[in-house]
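Entry 14. Structure prediction run on the chain below.
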Amino acid sequence: MQNFFATCPRGLENVLAAELEALGALNVGSVDGGASFEGPFELCYTVNLESRVASRVSWRVAHGPYRSEREIYDAVRALPWHEWFTVDHTIRVDVAGIRAPVKSLEFVTLRVKDAICDGFRERTGVRPSVDTRAPDARINAFLTATDFTVYLDTSGEALFKRGYRREAGEAPLRENLAAGILRLAKWEPGIPLLDPMCGSGTFLCEAAMIATDRAPGLERDFGFEKLSMFDAKAWHRLKEAAHARVKPAENLLIHGSDRYGEALKLARANLAALGLEGAVTLKQADVLDVPAPADGGILVTNPPYGVRLQDQEQIAELYPKLGDALKKKFSGWTAYLFTADMRLPKLIGLSASKRTPLFNGALECRLFEFKVVAGSMRKVKGEA
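Output returned:
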């Protein structure tokens, strides 16, 4: 039984934990920024391939108390790194910590790197090279006030890089965050879905992959494939099974629109890379003019939020009109608006039934839920 840790966008920890349990992980425990879990080593193949929410999956190779940088160095040097990858593989070391009683995390990073290299030199006579941009093996250490933990990354590139994105618009939403938002919205295949400001189509692509039961990692490589204990036959069986279960892209009831033709061109290219271009309905239209494609369903979108004062003024004018358009055309729908603009509920003039804190990178955001009914949903003066 091995120990692992999967990171995810902050706010999606419980979504990730439920997903890990569904994938067969044992003793799942969510913490801020991710979830720990246990299972056989091959479980990391499954999680990397199948998880829609995780950002990375790391294998825990050491854990224990420490009182000095020297104790961390000795513990790391004693690990059998030569059994996990060869001296020909390049490495990268990253160290993070909370209230760690050390000189500096940069110094610990150097000590961990030296410990790995010295251990290789002691056993093989040579040491691996460092590559901070595209390493073969990524080593991460985390320090608390009393304990240290060392992880060997199994993902390689971050998992939100699905391998399908051909083009990206301005500030695209990360794929695993979009997938997590769809989970929070309780969207399921067969429920009509609309993103009326779809940009490069991240919500649409993620929803289409869910609807066709397509594993998000089918089109990419992973870090565990470079490790010495990699079981190529087991990995081949997993991928073959994932390919075999992909469903035909028919009647997906997924719709997207954007006022800009260039944005739709990006969305179309990304869907085409998945072989799903014809399965999603795309239309060029302003968000205020988009009709509801069904009597009920889920609307999910990431509306613009400005940093410049001029942008904020334009957005402040848009939101009340958007609220009116939702009431007029989308009665019976549930709308989920993901934004960093905390003014949205007040400006849109609708009462949010849920406000879920989420982070887009370091940016604090909210996923606002609005149950749309005909007529007025505007807050009366004095309403909490």
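The chain has a mean pLDDT of 92.
Filed with the rest of this week's runs.
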